[in-house]
Task: inverse folding
């Protein structure tokens, strides 16, 4: 893989990571308002936590899985799409 292609892939992944981080921050800010001292959380509060968890997982995916995929392509290993 040529350096130009690697730079393009890097920039695409960085842009995706930035977008995911922005959404993750929005979810985190909503979750900060939850009162965890209550005995039970409302359905809406649980949904906020679920969204935060999903967005965190997606961000980790961008950071780790895509990096592994890039490395495998660069080294001409098997590709995961």
Result:
């Amino acid at each position: 893989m040529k350096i130009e292609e690697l730079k393009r892939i890097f920039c695409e992944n960085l842009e995706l990571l930035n977008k995911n981080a922005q959404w993750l921050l929005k979810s985190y800010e909503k979750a900060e308002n939850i009162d965890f001292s209550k005995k039970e959380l409302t359905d809406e509060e649980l949904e906020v936590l679920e969204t935060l968890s999903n967005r965190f997982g997606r961000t980790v995916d961008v950071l780790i899985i895509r990096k592994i995929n890039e490395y495998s392509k660069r080294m001409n290993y098997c590709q995961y799409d």
DSSP finds two helices and no strands in the chain.
